[in-house]
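Q:
Got a chain?
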Amino acid sequence: MSHKKPSILQPGCANEFAPTIMKSFFKLFLLFVIVSVNAIAEDKKSSTGEVYLEKFLGDTQTLQANFQQTLRTRDGEVLQQTKGKFYLDRPGKFRWNYQSPYEQIIVSDGERIWIYDVDLKQVTVQKQIAGSPASPMALLEDSSTLYQSFDVFPLDEKNGVYRLKLVSKTKESDFAEIVVGLDAKGLLFMQLHDQFEQVTDIVFSDVSTNTELSNDIFKFIPPEGVDVFGG
């Protein structure tokens, strides 16, 4: 019997791996990959943190970074910790290389998302579909959609890092709230509060933006001998 390892990508389930684990996570993650922000939308005085968020969304074309990801209960009990390398090329292309504790590769070529579980020798493929305006996808559609779909609350500032809380204005979101942390250079971390009262922290480091990335990073060919599901 294969050992099924926990996945931080599935809210509410820390002990099973299945193709559906990506649904909620990618509704949120596609914030970073589908469309870009072209202008500040509303005639409003933005807080410093909001200005940083708007600038990051508008200016970022490519991004590469190391990441550490922690899934925990609302009470702080750690369910899983992972780390790896992340690449982004907007619109639509990204790659997560999970290095530990389990090796997993997640690649989008702009049309399909490939999820390769190295230990289980399984690849799951799904079409990449943009989320609805009511989902966290709205965060990157444009500034107008940001403020139409989310209530944005400045939280605090410490050592030049500003935290913002984004709360969906509809009940259709998979996440009760999203907390983002930014400084003048861009995004530093995200904290996702899901409807199962679990919290996922994603902390980025060694971030490099708007550098040329090879197209090969966003291509995936299933290795010989693996099982492929979906298409």
Notes: Residues 1-24, 35-43, 132-138 have pLDDT under 50 and may be disordered. Residues 48-59 form the longest helix (12 residues).
